[in-house]
Structure formats: C-alpha cells, structure tokens
Amino acid sequence: MTQVASNNTPGLMKATHISPVDFSAAYTSASSITATGAPFTVDDSNCFVVYIMYKPSGGTWQPPIINGRESISASSNVITVTGMAPFVSGDTYIVGVAYQEKGYSSAEDSKQVSVGNQLNTEYTGETLASETDQTDGTYYYYTDMSGYRKTGFQLQGISAGSGHITITCEGTLQDDGTAAASCNYQDITSGVFTIASGIADDLWIDDAEKLACYKYVRLKVVADSGDNTCDYTIYSKKLY
C-alpha cells in the first residue's frame, strides 16, 4: 500500500506550513526545489522539512519523500534530496515544513486567536451631554459614524424654565482628516428623523440607516432659558 503523507500520518512530524498555501515550491534541479514566500527562511537551522510530494506534468501524485526515511535537507530556502533525482521541470509540489505553530506567541507562551463579531463591539453607547443650569448659548455634541450603520438619540430631561431649548441634527461627509469641530455641517434633522427640531423629551431613531453615510454627526443645542437654567441629557447608541 502506498503511504500518503499528511498532517495526520502516524509517526510523521506535523507540518505547520504547507505549499502552495503558505509558500511556493518550484523546480531547481533533479534533486532540489526552491521555496519562496514563506514567512521564515526554510533552512535546517530553524525548521524541519517533513515531506515532499510531487506530481509530474500530466501524471499522478508520486509516493511521498519523507524525511528520516529518505534524506532531505534545507539551506537558504533550497530543499535538497540526497541520493535521489526524482524531479523534472514542470512538476507540481506539495512540501510540508515543521516550524513554530501558527498563531503562537513565544513571548506570552500562548495561542493568539482573532474573534470575529465580538459581542462587545456590536454597539457603542455614549452620553453625549448631561447638563444642569446650562448657560444660554449654542452647543454642539459630536459622534463619529465611521464603521457604524445607524444610531439613535434619546433627549431626556429637557427643561428651560420660562424659555426654550431647540435641538437639531447636523451631518458632514467631510472625511479628510479635519477635526470634527472644524468640518462643514448641514442640517439633516428632517431628512433623517422627519421632524424639524426637538424641544421636548423624545427618541430619535435612524431606522433607515441614513446616518451610515456620514463621517460625523452632531446635535446642535440652542439653550435660551433667559436665566441660564437649561437642563438636558442626550444619550446615543450606535450599531455596527
């Protein structure tokens, strides 16, 4: 029975890097092939060539050349088989090399794992403002929409004594490195939330995801109590 080399062959050292996925292996001579593109130098000083599989052009895969059963050495990315001359220009190769396991950090002695769609990055909540007895004037509260699909705002505790508070939403597509406070903004309140402005406690939700296009969104608060007694809190939640 022909022995087939794989990462699971009993008694065979596990290959951590395999061509052509992790690097390329090409014909050099009848007894040697050259590895290119590996994340390390293929050399006996820092890795171990476990096996070589090859398929002649127009032919079928040949029995693997296994290091230890046959003699395979590597120096400066050139892999040489001693006592054999099995290779021909045009052959296709699969080479298995044992190196440090992928994702392993020697400094931390641990495996590094990247987790997609982490629950703690599915949304971001912010308190944009929490003011009591705010001095009359105009104030801006910014949120960066980069990477987010939609956001919502909760206007809470709106109070202005005998005067009033007006809140509008403004947006900018300016994404050229300019600081948020220095960008050019336009009023988008009615286009996104279908109201002209906010003057009382309310919830503004961007169900249509219109805010996904903007670089920055800001809420403009005009406090006009007449005696500097404006109160308001603004919460926001952005979704990826």
By DSSP (H or I, 4+ residues per run), the number of helices equals 1
Domain module count:
2
Oligomer: single chain
Distance separating the two termini? 55 Å
The shape, in one word, is rod-shaped
Content-based structural category: mainly beta
CATH fold name of the largest domain, please?
A: Jelly Rolls
Mean pLDDT: 89
CATH class of the largest domain: Mainly Beta
Fraction of helical residues = under 10%
Radius of gyration: 32 Å
Structure report:
The chain is mainly beta and 240 residues long. It has two domains: 88 residues; 118 residues, Jelly Rolls (Sandwich). It is built from one helix and 18 strands. It has a four-stranded antiparallel beta sheet with strand order 1-8-4-5, with no helix packed on it. A hairpin with a 2-residue loop joins strand 6 and strand 7. The radius of gyration is 32 Å and the shape is rod-shaped. The N terminus is likely disordered.
Q: Which features characterize this protein?
A:
240 residues; mainly beta; Jelly Rolls; 2 domains; four-stranded antiparallel beta sheet; 18 strands; 2% helix; rod-shaped; disordered N terminus
Record the SSE blueprint:
Elements lengths: L16 E2 L5 E6 L2 E5 L11 E8 L9 E2 L4 E5 L2 E5 L9 E7 L5 E2 L4 E2 L11 E12 L2 E8 L5 E10 L4 E9 L13 E2 L1 H5 L8 E4 L10 E9 L5 E10 L1
Antiparallel strand pairs: 1-8, 2-3, 3-7, 4-5, 4-8, 6-7, 9-10, 11-18, 12-17, 13-16, 13-18, 14-15, 14-17
